[in-house]
Design a protein that fits this description.
Elements (H helix, E strand, L loop, with lengths): L3 E9 L4 E9 H8 L15 E9 H17 L3 H19 L6
């Protein structure tokens, strides 16, 4: 759970199913397993974060997302703060992008 940085509901299907996405820091996972990967402390990039998608009944998926997010808010790690910062910067770039007059 130390490597998990986000959990979101990504898709709600018409057959009462939903897809949830669990995002984790792959560099933290490999270093906790014991790989000899070089430490990139303080340099968060999108390639460090991986995700897994899970499909479940909509109510179950919503409960899972809510519970994981409660845990993440209580134990806000540096990795999570870096991920949130990257996500906000990406969102800001999208909003500020414009082509201008031609």
């Amino acid at each position: 759970m130390d490597c998990v940085v986000a959990c979101d509901l990504t898709e709600t299907k018409s057959n009462n199913r939903a897809v949830l996405r669990l995002v984790y820091d792959s560099t933290a996972l490999s270093s906790s397993i014991g790989d000899s990967a070089p430490s990139q402390q303080g340099t968060a990039v999108w390639s460090n974060f991986k995700h897994h998608d899970f499909e479940a009944e909509q109510k179950v998926a919503e409960d899972i997302v809510q519970k994981i997010n409660n845990i993440l808010e209580l134990r806000c790690s540096v990795r999570r703060q870096e991920y949130i910062s990257l996500r906000e910067r990406k969102s800001h770039r999208r909003r500020s992008f414009h082509l201008g007059p031609r």
